[in-house]
Design goal:
The protein is an alpha/beta fold. The chain has helices at 18-28, 40-60, 73-87, 101-109, 125-131, 154-164, 183-186, 237-275, 309-318, 338-342, 347-350, 364-382, and strands at residues 6-7, 67-70, 92-96, 113-115, 136-140, 169-173, 192-196, 207-211, 279-281, 299-304, 321-322, 353-357. Strand 3, helix 4 (101-109) and strand 4 (113-115) form a beta-alpha-beta unit. Bound molecules: pyridoxal-5'-phosphate (PLP).
Length: 390
């Protein structure tokens, strides 16, 4: 990345760890074998995939045979929901309204039910209980929200599901959680767990779905029968190897990164609240020192009344600061975020949202630069002559 770019969009994608790139390179060159074959190069590739499976199983708290490699988080989420419902004809899917579209779209396509969230974006457990019943086949609740960073206590969700829909499978989208939480522990109550490599220092286009033993799942992709018939298609060997290398680094560094990045995030959020009149931090609880405890360490989300998010992103980009307004897929779209709407923010306030997401490469200098650029851009957009909304 150009050294003059202040990259604060790690929730969209985070730079690859050098260890991941190094691990991948041989599989893009001389170690090109197809792991499904039987000759030497194929066996070498298969061994690499098996080793990567062991590493991912360690990171995700499951057995190696429970890891199904996918093309990323979107495929893992779709496979979990569509694949579970295919095994249970007529069953319903239930998810909170603030899920990622990779969950919402298959739930809605199956005619499923969406459940309210609270002002922090966390699923309302009473509303969840009310939406459940014996007809429910799958409940999908994300571990950490991609826009506002709110963490779900999955144990509490699992208890509600066990009580009100005991036959249902619990799926969690842990795509945004893995860089910050011990997913092996936090996602333990779920039968299905989705992750994506490019959110934690691996390459784009590869991910995994944990399918715990005893969890029935029909394949989304049928063909050559790879991944024990759970996901056909030639393995992305280099991608899988890179993902495992990133997971290995993450396991060694995660705790220290959470402390380091969390302190940077607090300085950034507190600094912007102090520097920008009427700035509102989204999804926090009260004003006490623990008001961000339910958020992942890299997440800083604010709303600026009287400002259009798209114009703010443009000015920040011009100043060399990379940020986003909502999730990366929704960013730039005219519709305000469905997550903020579900959290009860009105259209006006949600229209002035800014997501700054920090990650493993974020430095104190990045935070300083954002603390200079964001207040200046907001002030400029609020000048009546520039077309501010107030
Ligand atoms: N789920 C969440 C919570 C995400 O943030 C994302 C990506 O932004 C996805 C799923 C989709 O993952 P991928 O980009 O690997 O398809």
């Amino acid at each position: 990345m150009a050294s003059d770019v202040v990259y604060l969009d790690h929730a969209a994608t985070t730079p690859m760890r050098p260890e991941a790139l190094e691990a991948m390179l041989p599989f893009l060159t001389e170690r090109f074998g197809n792991p499904s074959g039987s000759h030497g190069p194929a066996r070498h590739a298969r061994r690499a995939v098996d080793d990567a499976r062991d590493v991912m199983a360690g990171a995700l708290g499951c057995r190696p045979g429970e890891v199904v490699f996918t093309s990323g988080g979107t495929e893992a989420d779709n496979a979990a929901i569509t694949g579970t419902l295919a095994c249970r004809p007529g069953a319903a899917a239930v998810a909170p309204a603030a899920e990622h579209h990779a969950v919402l779209a298959p739930v809605e396509a199956a005619g499923g039910r969406l459940v309210e969230v609270d002002a922090t974006g966390r699923v309302d457990l009473d509303a969840l209980a009310a939406a459940l019943g014996p007809d429910v086949g799958i409940v999908s609740v994300m571990l950490a929200n991609n826009e506002v960073g709110t963490i779900t206590p999955l144990e509490e969700v699992a208890a509600v599901v066990a009580e009100a829909a005991p036959g249902a499978v619990l799926h969690t989208d842990a795509v945004q959680a893995l860089p910050w939480l011990d997913v092996a522990v936090a996602a333990a109550p779920a039968g299905l767990v989705s992750v994506s490599a490019h959110k934690f220092g691996g390459p784009q286009g590869v991910g995994a779905l944990v399918v715990r033993d005893g969890t029935d799942l029909a394949p989304l992709l049928r063909g050559g029968g790879q991944e024990r018939d759970r996901r056909s298609g030639t393995h992305n060997v280099a991608g899988i190897v890179g993902m495992a290398a990133a997971a290995g680094v993450l396991q060694r560094e995660r705790v220290a990164q959470v402390t380091r990045v969390g302190a940077l995030r607090d300085r950034l959020a507190d600094g912007l609240l102090a520097a920008v009149p009427d700035a509102v931090e989204t999804g926090v609880t009260g004003a006490g020192p623990d008001r961000r405890h339910h958020k992942v360490a890299g997440s800083c989300h604010l709303c600026f009344d009287g400002v259009e998010a798209e114009a703010l992103l443009f000015l920040l980009d011009t100043a060399g600061v990379c940020a986003s307004a909502a999730s990366s897929c929704a960013s730039g779209a005219a519709d305000p975020s469905h997550v903020l709407a579900a959290m009860g923010l009105d259209r006006e306030r949600a229209g002035g949202s800014l997501r700054l997401s920090l990650g493993w490469t974020t430095t104190a200098a990045d935070v300083d630069a954002a603390l200079g650029a964001v207040p200046a851009a907001v002030a400029r957009l609020r000048e009546p002559s520039v077309g501010g909304r107030r």
